[in-house]
Amino acid sequence: MSFLGSIGNIMSGSGLAELMETVYAPNAVTHMFTGKAVARAVRGHFLIYNALTSLLLCEHFHVSSTVLKDHDTENVEHLSSLEDSEIHNENTFIQDLNKLSYIFDEILERHLPVDTLDQNEVLRKIRDSISTFRKSHIENRTARLWFLYMDMVDLLRNFIKAERTGNWTLHLQTIQKMLPYFAAAGHNLYLKSAYVYLQQMHGLSRTNPAINEALMSGFHVMRRSDRFWSGLSSDLIIEQVLMRCIKTTGGLTRGRGMTDAQRSLWILSMPQCIQMNEAMQQVTGVNFETSEQHKEMCIPRKVRDTKDTTTFLDFLGERSPFSIDKNLRNIETGATGDSNVNSDNALVIGHNIISSMEGKCIDEFVFKRKNQVTTLSSKLNIKVDNEEISVDPQLLFQRLVTTANTMFPDVSQVFKYELSAVPAALFEPSGLMRQAQKSTLADEIWNTGSCVFSDDLGTDVRHVIDGGSLIQRIPWKKGATFAEICQLYIDHINNRYPIPIIVFDGYGSGPTTKDHVHERRSKGVTGTHISFKDSTPFKSKKEIFLANGENKQNFINMLCNKMDNEGFISLQAAADADVLIASTAVRYASCYPTVVVGEDTDVLILLLFHAEENSKPLVFQSDKIRKSKVWDIKKD
């Protein structure tokens, strides 16, 4: 379906492909984006639409997306950190969800007429909430692009509904709304054909009233049963029914030949075959029947859909496209589009192209590529014969190596040449360095020998704490002052560590070795700079506030001052603190039993390398209460 290809074109580089790859294989996603894997693409788009709507409502009501899942222990701990107003919003939202679930069940049981849903108070409230949220985020380009995506999926849903139910009016309305997206995505032949098709169909009431009446009665689709949702488009009947009969056993391609006489005999014999089939069913007592229940309503399909929707929701929850950020960015890699990227205005661009077509001869009108949308993926495109082509460096490298295996007896000769711009083993197609699975290395070290520490350290113990991990550990209560937030950290340390040494990262303006890690974690979101002092109330989200490096540095400075006043020892590195944490721990371990508290595998490796044999006990442990490993760094 060309419209599926238009969606894939406009959304290329936005992070939609990476989102789909959490459920589908990368090669399948490529076909889904071009409109070839239709069934998978339709299902994927519908599930992502559901996940986006859920995330949108959660952000509008200021509740966690976990309210859409079964509550567990961590959820209860999360609720305890919310304000009363947030808890009220969450309870109200859950009540609305329960009402919607009840309404849905009533519709399925046919106790509630579908035509009364427009007056339903709960549905009206949800519609108004979505409308209000969209208006409040209209200036955020990333949010605007994903709102556009939701609109395109809505059109796709309406088109399928029109075809399956035989609704001719909805069919024409949907195709007319698709025209701007065809134009913006560069599907020019489909745009011309659909434009002329609409003109002819709208004139049928004058030129051929009888055909128009038949189409209005739903005869633009074909039905193989009398079920309401059984309409099939003519091209589907030809491709999936007629062609299947021709190419399967008993078909024309199975030795019968394709002459006129054979085709006529085969077609005229089909009604007799149906009668023979029914007679055989009566003789054998075996009947072929289909269930009235749609296959998407069966339990295995619903379980799978719920699982995949949850996967999409988890991905989007960490990379929300509705964050307060006016830049247009890829929600996975954080790559930001420049002023030339305009995919978030695809609808306006499409209307402008259609306006330029009006009154022109269809054979003479020429589309210009510069008038189409420029997507986020255009940053990775190259020009070949004045045509922009999107290149996947990893796929290109794999194909070159595969070809070389068949052409060269010694493949090593091929590697004398540059087969890729960057090493595919180290870099992703997006340009970011691949994320190391450091936890796997830690697990292998743990399983290699006995690393557990089980001795008593005594009372004179020094705790060297990873400040970066500590900052993420404590939840921030909205409305609390920054002095109160700092006090939360001080109380947390006082309750757990008698003699603490806290080591923080530095967030200066210069480049560091961890810039690519920060870019990956932020997903391109840069929080607004906020000037604050002790009495300033915190009114933002913790993740957005800390996404701004200057905010994070100023908060660390404030926290360090208060820790120093409390009698703690606080240190701060110029950039990454891993080396400073390890060296501080090794220095203290020369005189005192020392425990390093953190989550970073880098710190563990540094401790294993720099630990001295004659020092006091040196231990590395996580700040987590459950399933926490305690490493004896000095144990062989």
Could you characterize the architecture of this molecule?
With 636 residues, the protein is mainly alpha-helical. The protein folds into 2 domains: 2-165 and 167-220 and 299-355, no CATH class; 438-632, 3-Layer(aba) Sandwich (Rossmann fold), CATH 3.40.50. The chain is built from 25 helices and 10 strands. The chain has helices spanning 2-10, 16-20, 26-34, 38-60, 73-80, 84-108, 121-136, 141-165, 168-185, 188-202, 204-207, 209-216, 234-247, 260-284, 299-318, 346-357, 393-407, 438-448, 467-473, 482-496, 515-522, 542-546, 549-566, 578-589, 601-610; strands spanning 222-223, 231-232, 381-384, 387-390, 462-466, 500-504, 569-572, 594-597, 618-621, 630-632. The strands form 3 sheets. Strands 7-6-5-8-9-10 form a 6-stranded mixed beta sheet, with helices on both faces. Strands 1-2 form a two-stranded antiparallel sheet. The chain has a two-stranded antiparallel sheet with strand order 3-4. A hairpin with a 2-residue loop joins strand 3 and strand 4. The longest helix is centred in the N-terminal third of the chain and has 25 residues, at 84-108. It is elongated, with a radius of gyration of 31 Å.
